[in-house]
Amino acid sequence: MTNYNADFLSSEEMRRLPFRSLGTDVLIDRNVSLVNIENISIGSHTRIDAYAMLIATGPISIGSYVHVSASTYFAGRGGIELDDFSNISSGVKVYSISDDFSGGTMTNPLVPEQFKALQCDLVKIGRHVVIGTGSVILPGVHIQEGCAIGALCLVKHTTEPWGIYAGIPARHVGERSHRLLSLEEEFLAAFSSRKGRQ
Fold first, then answer.
1. pTM of whole model > 0.85?
2. How crowded is residue 172: how many other Cβ atoms within 10 Å of its Cβ?
């Protein structure tokens, strides 16, 4: 994996952290904030860049070959799942929990829950999904396999597979090529043969 002069945790340092599970060839920048690490699972060949914040008050599961870019934020109370080969660009916010903004209840984390009406629901991000910089994903959304979410989108509803989405709120604007699937096969075959020669 590329080292862009970041300061990543060593393998030994990561092994000492109480992850639910941790794969191999994982890079996590020292400036990443991991809250409730025991609720975080990470696959193999995955990188989490500087200033990402993962709040795992519920389970956060990150697959293999996943890139979580700088300054991302995951509010994991309702659960967040990132499938293999997904890519989260810089500044993306993923919320599996949200306050009620209607004024009918109180808001903010300093108010006891009996005075609030929290929406708490699993967010799923499928295989080969790419989410553009600055986008916001709300509770209960399933971004299905192969979707591309443009920059600065607000994703309020579950998507269709292999769609291209843009706007506030995000709307379907096109279709993405399925060629990624054959490229994945080629990549995994090449990676496997390279490992076999080492």
1. yes
2. 13
